[in-house]
Write a structure and sequence with these properties.
The structure is a single chain. The protein is of the alpha+beta class. Helix content is about 65%, strand content about 5%. InterPro entries: DHC, Dynein_heavy_linker.
Length: about 600
């Protein structure tokens, strides 16, 4: 039995992993198994140092025979199995450290943030959803709301980290495996202990900074308040009076909560001292002196409030008059706003009007803000700013509405100024539908305004006109069709390659939609007749007639051909269709093909009888 270990493994923390050195991975060339295999090879290579006496032997040393010894092969395999078994036990020993994985994988800043918001520490894998709007956190099926931690919750959390530190301190630094392998965990333990102390110190440091910053803020507040309420105020010094009233209001607001603040800071200091945290002497002095100074400040504020009572009553009367005057100014401005704001679609330079009205609103808003602040200080009813708020609200809506109006106008102007035959009217229709959707997304308050209704009507009119004009882009439409349109509408007009879309829209053809559909339908029929006539010309222009000589005379007779008869019958069907669809412009051309096919067939049969 070995009294001293033969090999050593070291466990180290290399975040985010706990690693062994040498490695226990089977594919690693520097692993423990590779090290043992190297030792075995070195033992066998010793046999190469002993030369053979027989010079005629194939090998000059005994290594080959040693490697082929069955008992040695069995011993090597047994040694590898022992190494494998020891590696399994080392992996099991590592599990003791892996249960603290959260200490080096979790973000301390994020954990502190959650603790300060929700009063508890939540594992990262337990958080399902964070609703940032409502400030709720979903942990499993439980909903957590924002609830800052109390000093008791801080104590519980610090105690939990302290327990972890004690657990890590008590971990073994060395483990013997099978007597011959030593597992050294000192480095892993030291790293883990350092991280555990950092978690514990994180909360202590926050509390230390909180106590120090809170006391400093209180001292600054008390200093400024003492200085502010000690200032002498003249009866006509309104600015000085407002400053003093502001200090008195701050004292009144903090009066209820200040005693709880001092007690909370004392409890926090006592808790930190139980964990051995040393405080600066200045912090202890502040905590002893500031409560007495706060009591004195309250007393001085009460005396100053009595001294300023006559001045305050006078200013209250003046302030009420200003509040009434401000409300009247808002009412008059509301009336001007309704008259001058660009609510109409035919408004010229709407942005200039909005800028002028905005300047007046800014001035009124500043006045209203000043009066509200003064009303709070003197405890007077605040002026009503409902009319001004309504004007501001409608001004923002008007700005959004006119942005869309200008976007629509500029976009359509670019399309309307281009030759209409080169336009992709389908793309233009899609763009108009997009504008209509943008218009519908505006606030419902805008739908009663003339500017909204005007834009809505313009988009509808454009869409209706485009649906008609898209049909007139058909290749069946010829010059005489445009002539028919101009005669029907009573508007002289000529269409060429340079005709713009705006010019066609001026004809307002969407108001004569039935007429347009009639002409487009007629043009389609004419194109169909043209195609049939063209096919007849090609077919009969390529047919060659054959003649036979009469048996009793030299008179040539037309040769009877079944294919010719079939072609003639097919063309007869096409001719009947042309008669049904026949338009005035193609009437003469259709009649050229009108000779009776039945007469031709009888004539051909008679010729056949004669030949027979």
């Amino acid at each position: 039995m070995c009294t001293q270990p033969f090999l050593e493994l070291t466990l180290e923390l290399e975040p985010p992993l706990l690693v062994f050195k040498p490695s226990l991975e089977p594919d690693d060339k520097s692993s423990l198994m590779a090290l043992v295999d190297g030792l075995i090879c070195d033992v066998f290579s010793i046999s190469t140092l002993i030369p053979r006496l027989d010079k005629n032997c194939e090998h000059c040393h005994y290594q080959v025979e040693m490697e082929e010894q069955a008992d040695l092969i069995e011993m090597c395999e047994d040694l590898r199995q022992r190494v494998h078994s020891a590696a399994e036990e080392a992996l099991q020993a590592r599990l003791v450290y892996q249960k603290y994985t959260y200490l080096w994988t979790d973000d301390r800043k994020e954990v502190l943030r959650q603790f300060l918001h929700y009063g508890c520490v939540i594992a990262a894998d337990e958080v399902h959803r964070l609703a940032s709007i409502s400030g709720t956190l979903m942990v499993g099926d439980e909903t957590l709301t924002e609830r800052p931690p109390t000093i008791g919750r801080f104590r519980e959390q610090v105690d939990s980290y302290e327990r972890v530190c004690n657990e890590v301190l008590n971990l073994e630094t060395e483990t013997r495996i099978h007597g011959w392998l030593r597992l050294d965990t000192r480095l892993a333990k030291a790293s883990l202990l350092n991280i555990a102390f950092q978690w514990s110190f994180m909360l202590k440091e926050y509390l230390l900074n909180h106590v120090s910053s809170s006391l400093n803020d209180l001292e600054v507040f008390i200093d400024s308040t003492e200085l502010g309420i000690s200032q002498h105020t003249e009866p006509d010094d309104l600015e000085g009076l407002l400053k003093v009233m502001g200090h008195l209001r701050s004292v009144r607001e903090r009066k209820i909560s200040m005693d709880d603040v001092f007690q909370s800071l004392k409890d926090t200091l006592e808790m930190l001292q139980t964990y051995g945290q040393e405080m600066l002497q200045a912090i202890h002095q502040q905590l002893e002196v500031l409560p007495g100074r706060w009591v004195e400040v309250q007393h001085q504020a009460g005396l100053m409030r009595q001294h300023l009572a006559p001045l305050q009553a006078e200013q209250v009367a003046i302030l009420r008059k200003k509040c009434n005057s401000c409300e009247m100014q808002q009412l008059h401005f509301r009336q001007r706003f309704q008259q001058k704001a660009p609510f109409r679609y035919d408004c010229v330079e709407p942005y200039n009007w909005l800028d002028l009205l905005n300047q007046e609103m800014v001035s009124l808003e500043e006045t209203l803000k000043t009066l509200i602040e003064s009303s709070v200080l003197f405890e007077v009813g605040m002026p009503d700013g409902q009319n001004l708020e309504l004007c501001r609200y409608e001004a923002c809506l008007l700005k959004d509405l006119w942005d869309i109006i200008n976007m629509v106008r500029s976009s359509l102007a670019a399309w309307f100024s281009s030759p209409w035959k080169k336009q992709d009217l389908e793309a233009l229709e899609n763009m108009c539908r997009h504008f209509a959707n943008e218009l519908r997304n505006l606030d419902k308050e805008t739908r009663a305004w003339d500017a909204f209704l005007g834009l809505q009507q313009e988009i509808k009119t454009t869409l209706a006109a485009l649906s008609v004009l898209s049909e007139l882009q058909s290749p069946a439409i010829r010059d005489h069709h445009w002539l028919q349109l101009t005669q029907a509408t009573g508007t002289p007009f000529s269409v060429n390659q340079d005709t713009t879309l705006e010019a066609l829209l001026g004809l307002r053809l969407h108001e004569r939609e039935d007429l347009v559909w009639t002409i487009v339908d007629r043009a389609g029929k004419e194109m169909a007749i043209e195609k049939v006539l063209h096919d007849l010309e090609i077919t009969w222009g390529a047919i060659t007639f054959q003649f036979d000589q009469h048996s009793h005379s030299d008179v040539p007779l037309l040769h009877y051909d079944e294919e010719l008869i079939e072609t003639l019958e097919d063309n007869q069907l096409g001719r009947r269709i042309m008669h049904i669809m026949m338009c005035a412009i193609h009437r003469n051309n259709v009649k050229l093909w009108d000779p009776s096919a039945n007469t031709r067939r009888l004539w051909m049969l008679r010729m056949q009888r004669c030949l027979s």
